[in-house]
Amino acid sequence: MASSQSKVLIVDDDPSHLEIYSMLLKQAAFDPVTALVQFVGVDLPQDEEIGLVLLDYRLNSLKTSAQVAEEIRLSYPDAPIVLLSDLWQLPADIEPFVAAFVRKGEPAKLIETVARLRQSCSKP
Length: 124
Fold this sequence. Notes:
By secondary structure, the protein is an alpha/beta fold. It has one domain (4-122): Response regulator (Rossmann fold, 3-Layer(aba) Sandwich). The chain has three helices and six strands. Helix 2 links the parallel strand 4 and strand 5.
């Protein structure tokens, strides 16, 4: 059984990305939980103890990723946010909310980053 420390919330507007990242995280022994971003926003799961959040930067929504990150902070104040994007650098609007930035298409770096952040968050 996975601990809450291994639960990773994936927030994206593309169901196929949610599926791909879920499979990747399961293979690395993490417990993925998904939240699909809709045009008007996202319903974050309130009954889960989330240890880390993966957030896509480009969302097809009225809310920006920075606004969604603010909602994530309110729901899971201790969970670090890892931003996923095809951009080459971390966008300034979301920088205050994220603990790490990983480019899409770099699965090894993503798993390494998630593992590192989970390890650093679980230390006393």
